[in-house]
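User: Teach me something about this protein's shape.
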Amino acid sequence: MTDKNKNSGDYNSGYHNSGYHNSGDRNSGDHNSGYRNSGYRNSGDYNSGEYNSGDHNSGYFNSNEPTVRMFNLDTGLTRDEISLPYIYLPIAEWVDEQKKNDPQSHITGGTLIKRTYKEAWAIAWDKLEQVEKDKFLTLPNFDADVFLDITGIDVGPKTPSCVGRVVEIDGKKYKLTEV
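Assistant: First, the predicted structure itself:
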C-alpha cells in the first residue's frame, strides 16, 4: 500500500482503492473504473454488482442510469430528479455528561452512547421542524407503513376518536363511548 494513493491490492491507480486492477477513486472489488464502485468489472460511478456501466446501478450488465425505487415501488425518476432530505442519525455519540454513570469516565473523559437505527431515527425525528418532516412525507411513493417499518416512526393517519363527542339525533343529544 502506498501512502500517496492509500490503495490496497495490486495494480490500482487513483485514490483509496482496494482490490485489484482498479482505476478511479474509492473503488472496492476488482477491475473497476470510475468512482465509488463495488463489485467487479464496473465502469461509471456508484455501481455495485458486476459488469455495469452507466451510473448508480446495482445488479449485472446495466448500461443506463436506473430509475429509483422508493417505498418498494419504482418512481420512474432518476436519482438526480429526486430531492432526498437529509437527516442526521445519532447512531453513536460521545457524551461528556455521562461521566458520573461510567466508572471509566475519569480516564476516557466521557462515554460513547450507542443506539439502534430506530432509536437514532426517533431522536432525529423529534428534533426536526414540521417543514423538514414534510419533505420526507412528500417523497415519491411515500408509504407510512414502510416508513414505520424502516424507521420506527409512525406518521400514519391518526383515526380521530369519537369518544366523548356529543351528537344530536332527532333533537336528542348523545355522548359517544367506545364499545
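Now, about its shape. The chain is about 15% helix and 10% strand. Residues 117-127 form the longest helix (11 residues). If you'd like, I can walk through any region in more detail.
User: That's plenty for now, thanks!
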